[in-house]
Design brief:
Layout: E1 2-8, E2 25-26, E3 29-30, H1 31-46, E4 48-54, H2 58-67, E5 71-74, H3 81-89, E6 97-102, H4 110-119, E7 125-130, E8 139-142, E9 148-152, H5 159-162, E10 166-175, H6 176-182, H7 199-206, E11 212-215, H8 227-247, E12 251-252, E13 259-261, E14 265-267, E15 272-273, E16 278-285, E17 290-291, E18 296-302, E19 307-308, E20 313-319, E21 324-325, E22 330-331, E23 335-337, E24 342-343, E25 348-354, E26 359-360, E27 365-371, E28 376-377, E29 382-384, E30 394-396, E31 401-402, E32 407-409, E33 412-414, E34 419-420, E35 425-426, E36 435-436
Parallel strand pairs: 1-4, 1-6, 4-5, 7-11, 12-15, 13-16, 14-16, 15-17, 16-18, 17-19, 18-20, 19-21, 20-22, 20-23, 21-24, 22-25, 23-25, 24-26, 25-27, 26-28, 27-30, 28-31, 29-32, 30-33, 31-34, 32-35, 34-36
Antiparallel strand pairs: 2-3, 6-10, 7-10, 8-9
Bound molecules: uridine-diphosphate-N-acetylglucosamine and magnesium ion (MG).
Length: about 450
C-alpha cells in the first residue's frame, strides 16, 4: 500500500501570477490535475491514499483538490520541501511506502515511477535525470564507487558541482518509517533558509542506508517554474497527443498548429484536421470528418462524414452525420444539429434543435428554437427570442419555408408546411400549410426626382 504525497504548497513566485502555480493550465487542465491522474493510476494498482500538501493560494487550490475527491493537508508556512513532507506524514499515514510527487511536475512517467517504487521499497530512492542544462536543479553527488551521497541545490553548489549534469527530479520513494526517522533531523542552514527534503539523502547515507538512483527520461522530470517552462511542457504534451491522433488514423495537415486540450478527445480514423484548429475536451468526432482551417471546438460531438468549414466555432453542441457547418458559423451551447443539416456563413445558433435535412445557410440568428426536418431558413432570418427580461421559444414544424429577412418574434409557432414572405415580422402563430405575410404593400411612384447636390 502506498501513501502518495503531492507537494503543492509552494509560492511559485517565478510565475509572477495571482494564480497559484499548480492551478496554471497545461493542455487545458491544471498542472495538479495531471499529477493526480498519474497518482491515481498507481493507487489503482497498489492501493493506498493520495494527499496533496497545499499552502500558498490554498483558498483556490483546496477547492480544486476537493473537486478531485482528495484531501488537502495544510502547510501553514512554506518552510521547504522537507517541511512539506513532514506536514503530510504528521497525518499518521500508515501505508508501508511513501512516494513524493510534485504538483508542478506533470510529465512524470508511470514506468519510471514503477521502477522507483521497486528501488525504494527498503531504502530511499530518487528519480534522477541527466540533462543538457541543469541550471536551477539540485545536483546528484556520487562518490568514487558511483554511490549517491547527497544532493546539492543549485544556489548552494560550488562551480565544480554546478558542472554535474545529473539532476534531482524531486521525486522520491522510501519506506514511510524511513522518512519518519530522517525528517526530524533536517536543518535549514542553507542559502534559502528552508528545510530541504533533499538533505534526507545525506542523512540516510550517514545512518548507513544506501540511496538508490533511478534514471528517468529527461522529459519526465520537467517542472514548470515559470511561464516559459510551462509553454515548453505544453509543446511536449501537444506533440504527444498529435502523434497519438495520427497513429490512430487522423490526418493533421500542419500538426504543430493543432492544439488538443483536456482529457477526453476521441476522434475516429480518416478524419482530417486542417491547420490552426483548437480542440477542447470533451470532443467526440466520427469517421471521415473534416475540421476546417481556424476552427475552435469545445465540448463538441460530431457524427461521421460531416464537414466543418473554416473558421467555425462550436461550443457545447452536437452535430449529426453528413452535416455541413460554416465557414464562419458559430454554434453556441445547447445547439443540436441533426443529420444532413446545413448551417452556413455568419449564422449563430443557441439552444436550438434543428431537424434532419434542414438548412440555415446565411446571416441568421436562431436562439431558443425547435425546428423540424426539411426546413429552409432564409438569409437574414432572426428569432427575436429576448424581450429584455425573458427568453421565449420559437417552434417550427417540418417542411417550413421561412422567407429571407423574416423576424420571428417569440413566443411563436409555425405549423408544418408554413411559408413566410420575405421581410415579414411574424408575431403570432401560423397554422400548418398557410402563407404568412406581414409587410405593407409596395408603392411605385412615377416621375420621382432624386434630390440633387447644389452646384456651389
Ligand atoms: C526542488 C529540489 C531540487 C530539484 C527540483 C526539481 C529541494 C530543496 N530541491 O527544487 O533538488 O532539482 O525541485 O524540480 O527540494 N513545496 C511545498 N512546500 C514548501 C516548498 C515547496 O509544498 O514549503 C512544493 C512546491 O509547491 C513544488 C515542490 O514542492 O511543487 C518543489 O518546490 P520548489 O520550490 O519548486 O523546489 P525547487 O527549487 O524547484
Ligand atoms: Mg520547482
Amino acid at each position: 500500500m502506498l501513501n502518495i504525497v503531492v507537494l503543492a504548497a509552494g509560492k511559485g513566485s517565478r510565475m509572477n501570477s495571482s494564480t497559484p502555480k499548480v492551478l496554471h493550465h497545461l493542455a487545458g487542465e491544471p498542472l495538479l490535475g495531471h499529477v493526480v491522474r498519474i497518482a491515481q493510476q498507481l493507487i489503482d494498482q497498489h492501493g493506498g491514499t493520495i494527499r496533496v500538501v497545499t499552502g500558498h493560494g490554498s483558498d483556490q487550490v483546496d477547492p480544486y483538490v476537493q473537486s478531485l475527491g482528495l484531501d488537502a493537508v495544510h502547510q501553514a508556512e512554506q518552510l521547504g520541501t522537507g517541511h512539506a513532507l513532514q506536514t503530510a506524514l504528521d497525518q499518521e499515514l500508515t501505508e508501508h511506502q511513501t512516494l513524493v510527487l510534485y504538483g508542478d511536475a506533470p510529465l512524470v512517467r508511470i514506468a519510471d515511477l514503477q521502477l522507483l517504487l521497486k528501488a525504494g521499497s527498503k531504502s530511499l530512492a530518487i528519480l534522477t535525470a541527466t540533462v543538457s542544462n541543469p541550471t536551477g536543479y539540485g545536483r546528484i553527488i556520487r562518490d568514487e564507487n558511483n554511490l549517491i551521497t547527497g544532493i546539492v541545490e543549485h544556489q548552494d553548489a560550488t562551480e565544480k558541482q554546478r558542472s554535474i549534469s545529473e539532476i534531482n527530479s524531486g521525486i522520491y520513494a522510501a519506506p514511510t518509517a524511513l522518512f519518519n526517522e530522517l525528517l526530524p533531523y533536517l536543518a535549514n542552514q542553507n542559502s534559502q533558509g528552508e528545510y530541504y527534503l533533499t538533505d534526507c539523502v545525506q542523512l540516510s547515507v550517514r545512518a548507513g542506508h544506501q540511496v538508490n538512483g533511478v534514471t528517468g527520461s529527461d522529459k519526465s522530470i520537467m517542472g514548470a517554474n515559470d511561464l516559459i517552462q510551462l509553454a515548453e511542457l505544453n509543446q511536449i504534451v501537444q506533440e504527444d497527443r498529435r502523434h497519438a491522433l495520427m497513429r490512430a488514423g487522423v490526418s493533421l495537415i500542419d500538426p504543430s498548429t493543432v492544439f488538443i486540450n483536456g482529457p477526453t478527445i476521441n476522434i475516429a480514423s480518416d478524419t482530417v484536421i486542417e491547420p490552426q484548429v483548437t480542440l477542447n475536451s470533451p470532443i467526440i468526432i466520427g469517421h471521415n470528418v473534416i475540421i476546417g482551417f481556424g476552427s475552435y471546438l469545445a465540448d463538441a460531438r460530431i457524427g461521421d462524414n460531416t464537414v466543418i468549414k473554416p473558421y467555425t466555432m462550436v461550443e457545447s453542441a452536437s452535430i449529426g452525420s453528413g452535416a455541413q457547418v460554416g465557414p464562419f458559423a458559430r454554434l453556441r451551447p445547447g445547439t443540436t444539429l441533426s443529420d444532413a443539416t446545413h448551417v452556413g456563413n455568419f449564422c449563430e445558433t443557441k439552444n436550438v434543435w434543428l431537424g434532419e435535412g434542414s438548412k440555415v445557410n446565411h446571416l441568421t440568428y436562431i436562439g431558443d428554437a425547435t425546428i423540424g426536418s426539411d426546413v429552409n431558413i432564409g438569409a437574414g432570418t432572426i428569432t427575436c427570442n429576448y424581450d429584455g427580461v425573458s427568453k421565449h421559444k420559437t417552434i417550427i414544424g417540418n417542411d417550413v419555408f421561412v422567407g429571407s429577412n423574416t423576424s420571428l418574434v417569440a413566443p411563436v409557432a409555425l405549423g408544418d408546411g408554413v411559408t413566410t414572405g420575405a421581410g415579414s415580422v411574424i408575431t403570432t402563430d401560423v397554422e400548418a400549410g398557410k402563407l404568412a405575410l406581414s409587410r405593407s404593400e409596395q408603392v411605385s411612384i412615377e416621375g420621382y426626382k432624386r434630390p440633387k447636390k447644389s452646384e456651389d
